[in-house]
Amino acid sequence: YQRRVREAVVSTQSTGDITTNVTTFTVELVNDNLFEWHVKLHTVDKDSSLAEGMRQNNITYILLNMSFPDNFPFAPPFVRVVAPIVEGGYVLDGGALCLELLTPTGWTAAYTVEAIVTQVGSALIKGNAKIAKDGRKFTLKAAQASYKSLIKTHEKYGWVTPPKAEG
Fold this sequence. Notes:
By secondary structure, the chain is of the alpha+beta class. Helices cover 32% and strands 22% of the residues. The protein has 4 helices and 7 strands, in the order H-E-E-E-H-E-E-E-H-E-H. The protein has helices at 2-14, 49-56, 113-126, 140-157, and strands spanning 18-19, 24-30, 33-43, 62-67, 78-83, 86-87, 130-131. It has a 5-stranded antiparallel sheet with strand order 1-2-3-4-5. It is globular. 25% of the residues are buried.
């Protein structure tokens, strides 16, 4: 498993800024930990509310945290928004992301880091993400709790919107 994570690091770091058809991002290890990365999402759709908020607030990137489990690539990484605080765009409390591909049922070992970040960027735009103007901070604990709740909800209902009475 460590080999796959190491290959992903080498692949993303050797190219510097990674540009896909949707976004540009950079990757760095957190405290030299091969299994925890900071991903800086530098560009999103320039016509989006998120890009406008980034320009208005002089924000140069959206900081994501990506943590890889010991059994990666057979299980998905845990990905969350760290900063700035983003509302909408499938971002839950704590910065957790509501994306099927980041869950055990939606994950496939064929996903690359580039594909994951591209999907995150697309979801932020599709969900009309905006920069929040309040003083909140996203926390790992809140993100993990949101993710656990998300998993339970989608195990019960699948990937459809649950009845309003149940959440």
